């Protein structure tokens, strides 16, 4: 797993097209403060081939998660937002400009660190 730094968030989102029309594969609660989200997305660094991407949030302080049965029906047409604010990383389903607005998303995670791993589709 690679750490995702706050300075890399913009280029990371650009590489995956802000995860527009990506697919939620799974949400796994590893521990109460560690959550892993697996997405399938097109990778701009690989000629837009589809890959699997795991995002691991550590030090989770707040979360609103989707039920597993709803993942395949999740509308990803707006993609996701990844923010760094108040010394925390945040993921939200949809487009948000602030941490407080992102907390209103249907799926939201706030954590102290974020790592990712690429996998095959």
A few lines on this structure:
By secondary structure, this protein is mainly β. It has helices spanning 9-15, 99-102; strands at residues 2-3, 23-31, 34-43, 49-58, 62-64, 80-85, 88-93, 108-111, 113-120.
How many distinct beta strands? 9
Total domain units: 1
What kind of sheet is the major sheet? Answer: 5 strands, antiparallel
Helix % is: under 10%
Q: Taking strands numbered 1, 2, ... along the chain, how are they ordered across the largest sheet?
A: 1-9-4-3-2
Explained architecture:
The protein has one domain. 9% of the residues lie in helices and 48% in strands. The chain contains 2 helices and 9 strands; from the N terminus they run E-H-E-E-E-E-E-E-H-E-E. The strands form 2 sheets. It has a 5-stranded antiparallel β-sheet with strand order 1-9-4-3-2, with no helix packed on it. It is globular and about 35 Å long. The mean pLDDT is 94.
Descriptive tags:
mainly beta, five-stranded antiparallel sheet, four-stranded antiparallel sheet
Task: Give the secondary structure arrangement, pairings included.
Layout: E1 2-3, H1 9-15, E2 23-31, E3 34-43, E4 49-58, E5 62-64, E6 80-85, E7 88-93, H2 99-102, E8 108-111, E9 113-120
Antiparallel strand pairs: 1-9, 2-3, 3-4, 4-9, 5-8, 6-7, 7-8
